[in-house]
């Protein structure tokens, strides 16, 4: 089962099924606060996405399809407020389809093009630049001797970092200011108890805001629930989505309630 959204361009983005086994894995990573691995795990669940906002949309849509229609966001008083995910998706999709975040910076005969990052977690500003750098064009200098134009979309991070190290420091600093600017913030939701909820798609905002949606059950809670649902096979249940598992829990609770009423 997949969660799929078709963009107006004809391209499809989405998320593969998210199961209780996935919940357990995310919970373990959350306990260790290992955000690079959390990002890798979640992004590997997605398909067709090219940038941070598309990943955010695919993950939220998948969360709504497989986990819960609502998610919790910390309010003004730092208390969690439940928000209907579809309202966020409805605000986010037009931004994905129409807003242009790209820019081209020129310095000393070198042109660099930046756009939304291909990741939702960055170790530092240099990492943000690496994930946001899309094209490089220059006419030759002492470090890069021949004229060339490079499309960086197909290069890995190490190759891009090597290229950045050959760029004049002043241009790298300019790129750093661009990817860390507050001008990129977008409003994804507004609520009386939350105020205006904004995210910066060039920062780690997306990962920090959506990860709790996937941290549904820790290992201990899952083991306890599996025990209470015997003789149902735990392997079978771990392959269920949280929504499917919730149905089984509800049916078992109703059965127990009925049995208790009959014994009175």
Structural commentary:
With 264 residues, the protein is an alpha+beta fold. The chain has 3 domains: 127 residues, no CATH class; 81 residues, no CATH class; 45 residues, no CATH class. It is 48% helix and 20% strand. The strands form 4 sheets. It has a 4-stranded antiparallel beta sheet. β1 and β2 form a beta hairpin. α3 packs antiparallel against α4. The longest helix is centred in the C-terminal third of the chain and has 22 residues. The radius of gyration is 22 Å and the shape is elongated.
Give descriptors for this structure.
alpha+beta, 3 domains, four-stranded antiparallel beta sheet, 11 helices
User: Helical percent range?
Assistant: 40-55%
- Quick one: how many beta strands? 11
As a percent range, the share of strand residues is 15-25%
Poorly predicted regions are none
C-alpha geometry: elongated
The SS-based structural class is: alpha+beta
As laid out across the biggest beta sheet, the strand order is 6-7-8-9
- Backbone CA Rg: 22 Å
Order of helices and strands: EEHHEHEEHEEHEEHHEEHHHH
The span between the termini is 43 Å
**SS field, number of helical segments:** 11
Number of domains: 3
Largest sheet: 4 strands, antiparallel
For the residues shown, what is the average pLDDT?
88
